[in-house]
Amino acid sequence: MSTDKVRSTKLKFKGEKTKKKRKRDDDEDGRVGSSKRRDDDKDPETWVLPEDPNELRGPTFIVHPSDPSPISINFNSTTNRVVLHFLDRDKVEDAEEPPTLLERTPTDVAQVWVTTRIAGSPTINLRTGTGEGKFLSCDAHGLVSADRDARGPQEEWTPVIMPDGMVAFMNVYEKYLSVDEVAGGALQLRGDSEEVGFKERFWVKIQYKYKKEANEEEKKRKEGLAGPPKIDEGSTNRMFQAWGAGRSVVSHDDKKELKRARKEGRLAEAMLDRRAKLKSDRFC
Predict the structure, then answer these.
(1) Sign of CA dihedral 120, 121, 124, 130
(2) Where is the composition biased (Basic residues) (predicted)?
(3) Closest listed residue to residue 253, CA positions, set 267, 222, 274, 232
(4) Is the preceding peptide bond at 68 cis, omega within 30 degrees of 0?
(5) What pairing do the DSSP bridges indicate for beta strands 47-48 and 203-207?
(6) Domain-by-domain residue ranges, the chain?
(7) Residue 211, phi-psi category: left (phi > 0), alpha (psi -120 to 50), beta (remainder)
(8) pLDDT per residue as tens digits for the range 35-73
């Protein structure tokens, strides 16, 4: 039997420190909550799905379940352009079985974005993990790019977590990020969709340590401002796994929930702007 250690293939990010796992002993009765023990033993760098918009922070992996191959949203630091990368091209011929969509994790730093947010705001910024750190933005015409060094209204995104765990991203123009099919069958990223359907839904993964951090902060905070409400699609929750198979349109009640999320986002931003102005006037 070989005694060689298996080499880890986990993607590491520059500046991250490797944390050693700590074993936990059972209490006197030999009982420890199984879910708590599993969480304590979980590798902090494990990629997990967020369950709340506030958990979206830190390194982020964004995937769309396109057919026939799922795609990830990448950034090419050489051309400074957003690229849609077909994940099936990463298959290794010697692999026994390719991972399922939800088992996939980033294999290249070009697939990783860094999510940041202003405290108290439901909106987030998506910054590239490679190059000089450009922000993902969308203009009034729905053109998506990542070539700006500073953040502004066009770099703000409101994440909306759907009942199935997928995420929709709403921009400042109250339109949604989507993967669109253009002439010739090519795919491109757009930001001008009016409704949330199959093309506007993404699987998003974050690292467990950031999810845990967000939950700990939430426990310390009194009940108050929360992230955008989750959308209850009810009977309209129809998922299509191929292009041209149809479109899932949210109900009237869901639209009201989305409008609430938008108003909360604008209110939070107005409050932040007001505080900044008062602070500026105080020192003038």
Answers:
(1) negative
(2) 8-23
(3) 232
(4) yes
(5) antiparallel
(6) 40-226+247-283
(7) alpha
(8) 555 666 788 899 999 999 999 999 999 999 998 889 999
* Nearest CA among 48, 65, 69 for reference residue 57: 48
- Full-model pTM: 0.67
Cβ neighbourhood burial of 93 (10 Å; 0-12, 13-18, 19+): exposed
Neighbours of 35 (CB within 10 A): 8
What's the pLDDT at 120?
A: 75
CATH T-level topology, domain 40-226+247-283: Trefoil (Acidic Fibroblast Growth Factor, subunit A) (2.80.10)
Cβ neighbors of 201 (< 8 A, separation 6 or more) are: 64, 65, 162, 166, 167, 168
What are the tokens at 256? 């009201």
Cα distance between residue 71 and residue 144, in whole Å: 16
The SS3 call for residue 249 is coil
Residue 46 tokens read as 């494990």
